[in-house]
Amino acid sequence: MPRFRFSNAPDSQIDPFNAGDPILPGDEPEWLDEEPADEEEAPYAPHGEKDGEPHKVSDNYQAPTTRDHGYDAPSIEEAPAPAAGPRAPSLGQQWQRAAEGARRAQGRSRKGATLGCVVALAVAVTLFGVVGDLLVSCVSLVTETVADGVDAVFFDDGVSFDDYVSDGDSDWRDTADELDLAAGEAVEQRMGELLADPASGELHERVVAYLDEELLRWEGYTAAELGIDADAWATWALTGATYELSSVYAYDDGTGSAYFDTEARNLNSIISEADTELYDYLSEHGLSVRDGEEPAPLSEEQRAEVAALWQDACERAASPEGAFVSVELARVGETWTVDEESLDEALESALGLY
What we know:
Oligomer: single chain
Strand content: 5-15%
Strand order of the largest sheet: 3-4-5-6
């Protein structure tokens, strides 16, 4: 192909206002040499046809052959056919054989691992059983030693800690000494006085006063103003209240304490539940009392309706509840007495007087 180049005239100052059309690269090239004469083309025909010419002059070129394959690349001269031999496995067969070998090896290793796990598990179970038995024995020995030490330090005359643990069927007198017995009798006497007659006595009066206090606080009326018989209600509330002395501890210094279980109606819960219906009745009849106002008197009919409504609501809300309370004891001379302040707190918890 003839060589050519673009024009490369010397640069000169160009007046931008009067210059002609610019000469850009890519215009007609300037030929440097004359085109060579056409050479005579060699006759050519596709390779393999009769009387055809090869792509290049004949030589001794021998096309390479791939090893272990029956295929040879075409060559100019006929080459002797390779000797027949065993056919090599294909790439897919090689992968299949390798995968099969890996699976067999994995199966052998898995069997070995499974056997090893079984043996290890058996050893672990055996060791765990041995260690567990040792731990149980050690704990039992330590517990017995500590219990014996506690009994030796805190209890005398062969009495042990187990003797003070109630199994629910034993009586507190079974482990009581003379001081405990005297103090326990004082507690039983005082509780008997309080619960002997639900219709009278100081506990009865306390329940009557509690009912008035609650009704005044919530509704602005006393029990009598609402037509509620406070005495009858207190008697009903205390009926069925019981107690059982659990344990008594009296000391040489004149102090002691007693613990007992109680079962009685929770009066605070009963009043709270019944007051909901009472509040609805008073609101519907325009009898609600606002702060600073005097309560409007109820008619006899309204008082009767309130009394019946109140008692029905209380009976529906009533259910005995258990409590575990204690009182403090003091010895004056040779007589044990119950501390009244601690007794008041015990009754407050047992009856819900808060």
